[in-house]
Write a structure and sequence with these properties.
The complex is a heterotrimer of chains A (294), B (357) and C (356).
Chain A lengths: L18 H10 L2 H18 L1 H4 L32 H37 L1 H15 L3 H12 L3 H28 L2 H8 L4 H37 L11 H7 L8 H29 L4
Helix pairs in contact in A: 1-11, 2-4, 2-11, 4-5, 4-7, 4-9, 4-11, 5-7, 6-7, 7-9, 8-9, 9-10, 9-11, 10-11
Chain B lengths: L5 E12 L2 E13 L4 E5 L6 H8 L8 E8 L2 E2 L5 H10 L1 E4 L13 H13 L3 H14 L5 H4 L9 H13 L5 E5 L7 H18 L2 E6 L2 H7 L2 E6 L2 E7 H6 L4 H8 L39 H5 L5 E4 L2 E3 L43
Parallel strand pairs in B: 3-8, 3-9, 6-7, 7-8
Antiparallel strand pairs in B: 1-2, 1-4, 4-5, 9-10, 10-12, 11-12
Helix pairs in contact in B: 3-4, 4-6, 6-7
Chain C lengths: L5 H11 L13 E11 L11 E12 L4 E5 L6 H8 L7 E6 L2 E2 L7 H7 E4 L13 H11 L4 H14 L4 H4 L9 H13 L5 E5 L7 H18 L2 E6 L2 H7 L2 E6 L2 E7 H6 L4 H8 L40 H5 L5 E2 L5 E2 L11 H5 L1
Parallel strand pairs in C: 3-8, 3-9, 6-7, 7-8
Antiparallel strand pairs in C: 1-2, 1-4, 4-5, 9-10, 10-12, 11-12
Helix pairs in contact in C: 4-5, 4-7, 5-7, 7-8
Classes of the chains: A mainly alpha (294), B alpha/beta (357), C alpha/beta (356).
Chain lengths: 294, 357, 356
């Protein structure tokens, strides 16, 4: 009987760790990704704890203290064109900006992945049909598409989220389809089919675990784009309506203050930039951590 | 006596991977004369490809190379970028396993070879094309004029490999390094390419270092064979000696596990365990965990080279040449029960036949 | 049909006593007739010339119970496609596949039932394992799909790990990237045995392993074959390994069977020029007696638009005008050894036969 003990070399001596544990460990060693993650967490925490940490009321303005510079007593980051405290507005603005940035990506992730995985696994004509429909959306540049959809649906937070979701679903679906097609031809999926498993079981056990990772990485990269698009929509008056604080909207209303208080007027842009780039760098770090080289 | 064409002493190659250092080659000595072929025989992780690439300094800057490499009298490790550029192709050339690595897919093959010739010798492009044609005839590519205008993907595997050999020989190098050039080829094509390499080497008087994991291939091309394991050469000697009377337990194990003479129904003589993890090499002999003749001394320090005969050395404390029968023989059906780890008796020897005298 | 040796009779009788057996000792376990698979691009809107890859172009063979059939051939011969056609991963264009006398996919033997009795081991040990699943989960997947509870399936997985030489306490919870190539291939073998199949197709299962590990895995396969009463189809390009493992050998060339018969007969006295060339192409192990001339020139051609008549005729050293016009059918040269060559058939009219 074959009792060949093959444990002479390469015996795993420590408890084997799962894939995601390994990813987290590699991520923790990446300084850029950790810095980016810290910034994101700080911004998110500030947004969640806004009522507790903001010094003033975001809606309460003062007509005599308009456009005060940074460092003015009582207004640490200055005041906006209606005399409202900038620091407070920025903190509260984070709530809406993050929400409008992240929510469409989450929705698009769910919808896009489903469509993409479905098309990718089935292949053939269904794949062609779905992917060509998706391609139609690619004919429009995302900014224009978002504006057009928002214009059609009307202004408001909910409508912006819907239009941005529609913009992102094709992109995520395309990534999902491409990754699923690759995985589908792997030997272990063939082996699973030979074992007699049905397509749903195979997708659940073998495909999803291997496919969601790369799609997730792509989606985190989209968050920064989404935030910028959302801010753009608000800037154009199609997203958040005044007096709600939102970074893009604030950029719009502070437009004219560029000549008098340029630093204050640029602050919302700085926040958008900082958040976007942190998401981007984190997404890059995540992608590197997920590539396991044997 | 003139210095050998290739003279490598105490070569070490270290790679930094994360926090660990991997010593891919740990003290390799190689000497190859003009007109001689040396085969580096080993499995994955033995360090053979790493050694070969170090001779052309193909490793990234992060790799640390120690020791001395002298080729055609030049010190390779001290070359400047400009000197390296003349050296690669002009003195030493390499043939790879995957011909796709050497050719750019968007340019015609003939143009690429001509470009290399122009760059090294400075002749006109037309003269270089003529040289490319001459080379294609030399490597026996049928309809060479037509093939010069092919793109790499239009050629079959065997033909691409011949084209790569042509490219390697374009600038008349003195040393040819071959990194498993036939591993990916079908059997009928492989033998054609091996014969071609042998013929070219004879005609041009090249020094050839041929890396392979297949013993049969090594026998076909090599004058001498160096068996590598765990980043070191464990046995070195003339081809006939290594094949017929190997002294190192690893070489013996490799030859016997081929099953050339094993009777049907018998079991192959298998070396237990797996090739070593280069990041965690044991302190003594790298083969000790799998060796059937291991003693305490083997684990303590790396064995020094033992001279079996002039020209034949083995790095083993218990080196013992054993005749390995390679023809069909009923005497070969031995069970592997005696080979497993702790069950091995210290004085166990592989079952080989002693030729009836 | 192969002549049944004495030593095989008892083995086959034991197998016939196997509760899964349906056809009895005389029936082949696998019988393939006229198997065809072409991969082609369908003609476009503007009808263009279709380029059809004739991967498998009409092959017949049998695999007796308890034997190992070795399939050899070079790239483009169709051996891997044949394996996938048998397993029904790819759907054949034409041909019959009978398993123990019953047609696969018919009312008597559904595809699901067939798949429980026939399994496959792939070449690439790494890509055959889901990197996200532990070793025990991978092996237990098949049984769980067929309804076993998780506990039973894991217990079976542990038992199989032990039988293939991997200690369950050490290896069951490992991930594929943590173990070596040889160990991964053992896991693949354990997985293929999880459903207790009768036929195992090994598609270049040892080709990617180091030589020292290859010998271990081959020994393991032989032990498992005896222990479980398996029948093997062993696909490889390495003739040494095929000689060691196989009872019968089938040589394929460009989608057709060139020669098939008992291993000793084919490898010692091949009758087809291609088999002769293949054997002669093996590197010599004698340094004083190296190969001096390549047995055959050129590369194995593309299965798109194969040559007319005998497919080997452009590269054959003993070619005659007859060979380009008519395709030789496999001819019995005795003892179950068939060769598809005009020279093997005394009535073919090949000029060299007259000279003999």
């Amino acid at each position: 009987m074959a009792a060949i003990a093959d444990a002479l070399t390469r015996v795993p001596v420590k408890a084997s760790r799962g894939y995601w544990t390994g990813v987290v460990a590699r991520l923790a060693r990446d300084p850029t990704a950790m810095v980016a993650l810290t910034i994101i967490l700080v911004i998110v925490a500030a947004a969640i704890l806004a009522p507790l940490i903001a010094p003033a009321d975001p809606y309460k303005g003062s007509m005599i203290r308009r456009l005060r510079p940074i460092g003015f007593p009582g207004y640490p980051l200055g005041s906006d064109e209606l005399g409202r405290d900038m620091l407070t507005r920025l903190i509260y603005g984070g709530r809406l900006s993050l929400f409008i940035g992240v929510a469409p990506v989450i929705c698009a992730f769910v919808i896009g992945s489903s469509v993409g995985i479905f098309a990718g696994y089935l292949g053939g004509r269904i794949n062609t049909l779905l992917m060509r429909i998706i391609d139609v959306f690619f004919a429009f540049p995302s900014v224009l598409l978002a504006i057009a959809l928002s214009g059609a649906l009307g202004a408001g937070i909910f409508n912006s989220i819907v239009s941005l979701t529609i913009v992102f679903v094709p992109q995520i679906a395309r990534v999902a389809e491409s990754v699923t097609t690759q995985i589908r031809s792997r030997d272990y999926v063939e082996a699973a089919r030979i074992s007699g498993a049905g397509p749903v079981t195979i997708v659940r056990v073998h495909v999803l675990g291997n496919v969601l990772g790369p799609i997730f990485v792509y989606a985190t990269g989209l968050i920064s784009v989404s935030m910028i698009l959302a801010s753009g929509l608000s800037f154009l008056g199609l997203g958040v309506k005044p007096p709600d604080p939102e970074w893009g909207l604030m950029l719009n209303t502070l437009r004219t203050a560029i000549y008098t208080q340029p630093l204050v007027a640029a602050l919302p842009g700085v926040m958008i930039f900082l958040t976007s780039i942190s998401f981007n760098l984190f997404s890059d770090g995540l992608r590197s951590a997920m590539e396991v080289k044997q | 006596m003139s210095a050998p064409m290739v003279d490598v002493q105490r070569l070490t190659v270290d790679f930094a991977v994360g926090a660990k250092t991997i010593r891919a080659a740990a003290g390799v000595d190689i000497e190859v004369e003009k007109g001689e072929t040396l085969a580096l025989l080993g499995e994955s992780g033995s360090g053979k490809s790493v050694t070969l690439r170090a001779l052309m300094r193909l490793h990234p800057k992060s790799a640390r190379i120690g020791g001395a490499i002298r080729i055609d009298g030049r010190d390779v490790l001290k070359m400047t970028a400009a000197e390296l550029s003349r050296y690669r192709g002009g003195i030493v050339s390499m043939v790879f396993q995957d011909p796709g690595l050497a050719f750019d897919p968007v340019y015609r093959v003939g143009d690429q070879i001509a470009e290399a010739v122009v760059r090294h010798t400075g002749v006109s492009f037309r003269a270089a094309r003529a040289r490319a044609l001459e080379l294609f005839e030399r490597v026996r590519i049928p309809s060479p004029e037509r093939r010069l205008d092919n793109y790499p993907h239009e050629m079959s595997g065997g033909m691409r490999q011949r084209a790569m050999i042509a490219l390697a020989l374009a600038c008349r190098p003195k040393v040819l390094l071959a990194d498993e050039p036939t591993t990916a080829l079908d059997a009928t094509v492989q033998i054609q390419v091996l014969l071609l390499l042998r013929e070219l080497q004879r005609e041009l008087g090249l020094a050839v270092i041929f890396v392979t994991h297949d013993i049969g291939v090594a026998v076909e091309v090599a004058d001498r064979i160096a068996v590598m394991y765990g980043g070191r050469i464990v046995e070195l000697g003339p081809c006939a000696k290594i094949i017929r009377a190997p002294a190192h337990p690893y070489t013996q194990g490799l030859l016997m596990s081929r099953g050339d003479g094993t009777a049907k129904g018998g079991r192959l003589v298998a070396i237990p365990g797996s090739p070593p993890d280069l990041a965690n090499l044991p302190p003594g002999c790298a083969f000790a965990p799998r060796c059937s003749r291991v003693i305490e001394e083997c684990r303590k320090k790396v064995p020094a080279a033992v001279i079996i005969e002039p020209g034949h050395v083995a790095c083993c404390v218990r080196a013992q040449p054993a005749e390995v029968f390679l023809q069909r023989s009923e005497t070969f059906s031995c069970r592997t029960a005696g080979l497993i780890g702790a069950d091995v008796r210290p004085d166990w020897r592989p079952h080989t036949t002693r030729r009836p005298s | 049909m192969s002549m049944i040796r004495e030593s095989d009779r008892s083995r086959i009788a034991t197998l016939a006593a196997d509760p899964q057996d349906r056809g009895g000792p005389g029936t082949s376990l696998l019988s393939v007739r006229g198997l065809i698979k072409h991969f082609g691009r369908t003609a476009g809107l503007f009808s263009q010339r279709r380029s059809v890859v004739r991967a498998v172009d009409g092959i017949d063979f049998e695999v007796a119970k308890g034997e190992t059939l070795g399939i050899v051939g070079e790239s483009g011969c169709g051996k891997s496609t044949t394996a996938r056609l048998i397993m029904q991963i790819i759907v054949p264009d034409a041909g019959d596949i009978l398993f123990d006398g019953e047609e696969v996919g018919s009312h008597a033997l559904s595809l699901g039932e067939f798949r429980q009795q026939a399994q496959m081991v792939f070449q690439d040990s790494y890509s055959s394992l889901n990197p996200r699943l532990t070793v025990e989960d991978t092996i237990a997947f098949g049984p769980r799909v067929h309804g076993l509870s998780r506990r039973t399936a894991i217990a079976r997985a542990h038992d199989l790990l032990h039988r293939v030489g991997l200690e369950p306490s050490r290896f069951a919870g490992c991930y594929p990237h943590e173990i070596s190539g040889g160990q991964r291939q053992r896991v693949n073998i354990a997985r293929s045995l999880a459903l207790e199949p009768r036929l195992l197709i090994l598609d270049e299962a040892v080709s990617a392993l180091d030589k020292s590990v290859e010998a271990q895995v081959l020994n393991l396969l032989l032990d498992l074959k005896e222990e479980f009463g398996l029948t093997f189809i062993f696909i490889s390009h390495d003739l040494n390994v095929v000689r060691f493992m196989s009872d019968r050998v089938m040589v394929m060339y460009l989608g057709k069977v060139a020669e098939v018969g008992p291993a000793e007969s084919i490898l010692a006295l091949p009758r087809h020029p291609y088999t002769q060339a293949l054997l002669a192409s093996m590197p010599s192990m004698d340094p004083d007696n190296r190969t001096q001339e390549a047995p055959v020139s050129g590369d194995p051609p593309n299965p798109i638009n194969p040559p007319s008549g005998c497919r080997f005729h452009p590269r054959c050293k003993v070619v005659a005008t007859l060979c380009a016009h008519s395709e030789p059918a496999p001819h019995d040269v005795g003892a179950g050894h068939l060769a598809a060559c005009h020279l093997a058939n005394p009535e073919s009219g090949h000029p060299r036969l007259a000279a003999a």
